[in-house]
Specification:
elongated, 8-stranded mixed beta sheet, alpha+beta, 6-stranded mixed beta sheet, 18 strands
Length: 711
């Protein structure tokens, strides 16, 4: 028998279970520990995400009050020693520094000796790893600003915001600048500095106007300054300084300054790429960025994207939940918050797409346990489940989700944005009709460009979601997969391997179906979105096809002209040599010299087509002109060159405009293919061209048209 376990062990196990304590965490503490969910994966990505969140907050602040955005970004890099000096952080004693330096020198010497023994390369300095530094980031805008008393709660409380609801927004988690504050607290321990000016009665989301009746901009009387920290464990703001002063500058907007750790070396290209793509999707904004380095002034540089358009998209409207998008939890929440007194009023007023007649039909289908006059608070869990099942399975009774609540950029602005940044040779834009998936409306806009500065051969896909650039995980995105595998580029006269193709896809929706926690790509598993992206890209390609066919034809004509001009000297020399031989034979015949017929001379029966007999008068006329010096090798060369030029000009004249411009709705006048074309006979022909004239040389071996003959 196995030995019995001692009671001591049993009591120990029981006590360990009793010692377990349930701990709850605040939202701020959760995101501080799981910062990768919000895009703060590493120091470099955290710096990039901090910039992105602050810039997009500024865009929202400007667009909410219909003000053209002016956004400036300043990034100042400093080393740890400079950061410690600025913050007054005490450093180690000189003795400890010297000891660490000696230890470092000893380890370096040991490594060098080992390297010399291994391969003789010990004298080479080891590569530095890392590159992390500290960055003072300042973002300033001209938006609506923040009310003085609302600043702490707006920026110091995680998962609190004004973007919850069924509406197209750039962000929905209530994070943004709050995560930048959390990252600043984790990496440097420095609070965030806010400076803002606000006009009373004006708020984001269309509340009030910043313009007076005569069109001038209102100015807030005070400027608020706030130094703000956050209590991670309580998810509450901790105000260090909060004061107001007179607005002597006459400025309105917000300036946010945060000091964070980051890595500029690995994410500089991403920051620049983000600003470039942001300039494409917001051509109505003026964006400026200034980077400086306290250690090396030569690394400083500036970026500026001027405003290209003054037409801002209309603001997105908040709508009610569509019946096909609800679930048990949502319906229960709506029932608790509703002000409707009956079930029928609840269906018609708290959900979209349900009329009174449709509501009555739904209640009849629900069964005898439901009544139109019953109160929403009378429904139990089983009845809620039954209601949800019926709402999600009865699509034919409801109106489709309204795409009018969305705010797409617009083809005009998208075209201008791409022209401003990419500078392509040709561009076409298209917007597909509004669609819906799971009760959420969406609109797809697309553009296809060819050429451009810094463009690469092949397909380059640029993606946007709710007017936000998506830079990461592009290979799995629906736009990338459709562009690479669903579009037959060759049928649109486009070589997807050699041409420099830019594909731009912008998707806006009340709920963008992102994949993964990073919200960096949209999967292709939603058929409605995939088909809409495909139709939009096909619409762009169809616009390009007509122009590209014309462009390719003109390119072929230019290449043919170049080849003809290349061989004209040799052709002129050969033709003139033939004429000289004919002239010599004519002279010998007149002198009575008889030559045997050439064995290569073909008769009419041997010709693939019936040959035209030589006209003796035309031959004599040509030879007489040669004797007078009217035909020479140089004259032949010049005449052939003129004929080639006239032929090419006639072909170009059909287009009338060879500048690569593609304007929607433009028409091109068509001409007959034979209009203004001049015959140039440098290849064998077997039918007589429609070229009346007497300067044709007829010969058993060939018919020669040496001069351009006007019709």
């Amino acid at each position: 028998m196995p030995p019995r376990k001692s009671s001591a062990n049993g009591s120990s196990s029981s006590s360990s279970k009793k010692d377990e304590i349930q701990v709850s965490k605040s939202p701020a503490e959760f995101f501080a520990e799981n910062q990768s969910i919000a895009g703060f994966d590493n120091p470099g990505k955290s710096l990039y995400t901090t910039l992105r969140e602050l810039i997009e907050n500024s865009l929202d602040a400007c667009e909410s009050v219909n003000v053209l955005p002016d956004i400036s970004v300043t990034i100042e890099e400093m080393t740890q020693a400079q950061f410690n000096k600025m913050r007054g952080v005490p450093s180690g004693s000189p003795a400890k520094k010297q000891k660490k330096s000696d230890e470092k020198d000893d380890s370096t010497t040991t490594n060098d000796v080992a390297a010399e023994k291994a391969g003789g390369k010990g004298s080479k300095k080891p590569r530095r790893s890392g590159g992390d530094a500290y960055f003072l980031v300042t973002v300033r805008d001209n938006g609506c600003g923040m009310a003085h008393e609302a600043i702490p709660d707006l920026l110091g409380r995680v998962l609190s915001g004004s973007k919850y609801g069924v509406r197209q927004t750039r962000g929905k988690f209530g994070l943004g600048a709050k995560m930048a504050l959390i990252w600043s607290k984790k990496s440097t321990g420095v609070p965030i500095n806010i400076k803002t000016s606000h006009v009373k009665g004006v708020r984001g989301g269309g509340g009030g106007s910043l313009l007076t009746e005569d069109g001038k901009r209102k100015i807030g009387p005070k400027v608020s300054s706030c130094v703000l920290d956050i209590d991670i464990y309580k998810n509450q703001p901790r105000v260090i300084e909060h004061k107001q002063q007179d607005n002597k500058e006459g400025w309105i907007g917000t300036q946010m300054q945060v000091l964070v750790a980051g890595n500029w070396t690995t994410y500089k290209s991403r920051v620049v790429q983000y600003l470039q793509q942001l300039a494409i999707i917001t051509p109505y904004a003026k964006l400026e960025m200034a980077y400086s380095n306290r250690t090396d002034e030569k690394k400083a540089f500036n970026l500026q994207f001027d405003r290209r358009s003054e037409q801002m998209p209309a603001q997105a409207r908040e709508v009610k939940h569509h019946p096909s998008s609800v679930n048990n939890l949502l319906i229960q929440q709506l029932l608790e918050r509703t002000r409707s007194t009956t079930l029928l009023k609840f269906l018609t007023s708290d959900l979209s797409g349900i009329t009174a007649a449709v509501g009555k039909k739904l209640i009849d289908r629900l069964g005898s346990s439901f009544d139109a006059d019953m109160g929403p608070d009378e429904m139990d869990d089983k009845q809620i489940t039954r209601l949800v099942q019926l709402l999600r399975s009865t699509d034919n009774l409801f109106k489709s989700p309204d795409g009018g609540c969305l705010s797409p950029l617009g083809e005009y602005n998208l075209n201008l944005g791409i022209q401003k940044v990419v500078e392509p040779e040709i561009i076409a834009t298209a917007r597909d009709k509004p669609g819906a998936y799971d009760g959420h409306p969406f609109i797809v806009e697309a553009a296809v460009s060819l050429g451009g500065k810094d463009a690469k051969e092949g397909i380059t896909v640029v993606r946007f979601a709710n007017r936000i650039p998506l830079l990461f995980e592009g290979g799995a995105d629906v736009a990338t997969r459709v562009a690479n595998s669903k579009i037959k580029w060759s049928s649109y006269k486009i070589d997807h391997k050699r041409d420099k193709i830019g594909v731009f896809v912008s998707i806006v929706s009340t709920k963008v179906p992102f994949k993964g926690t990073g919200k960096e790509y949209i999967g292709d598993d939603i058929t409605e979105i995939q088909q809409s992206v495909k139709r939009a890209l096909q619409g762009c390609c169809q616009q390009l096809r007509a122009h590209l066919a014309k462009r390719n034809a003109l390119r072929d004509v230019k290449e043919r002209k170049s080849r003809l001009l290349k061989y004209i000297p040799d052709v002129s020399k050969s033709l003139f040599g033939i004429l000289e031989v004919m002239q010599k034979r004519k002279q010998e015949e007149s002198d009575g010299v008889v030559r045997p017929a050439s064995p290569r001379k073909r008769t009419a029966e041997w010709s693939p087509m019936k040959r035209i007999k030589t006209n003796e008068e035309d031959v004599n006329s040509i030879l007489d002109r040669m004797s007078k010096g009217e035909i020479s090798e140089q004259i032949l060369k010049q005449s052939l060159q003129e004929a080639v030029e006239i032929n090419a000009d006639a072909v170009f004249g059909i287009d009338g405009n060879d500048n690569g411009d593609t304007r929607k709705g433009g028409s091109t006048s068509k001409k007959d293919d034979n209009d203004d074309k001049q015959p140039l006979c440098l290849v064998p022909i077997y039918d007589e061209p429609n070229c009346p004239g007497s300067n044709v040389i007829r010969h058993p071996l060939f018919d020669f048209y040496p001069m351009h003959m006007s019709q």
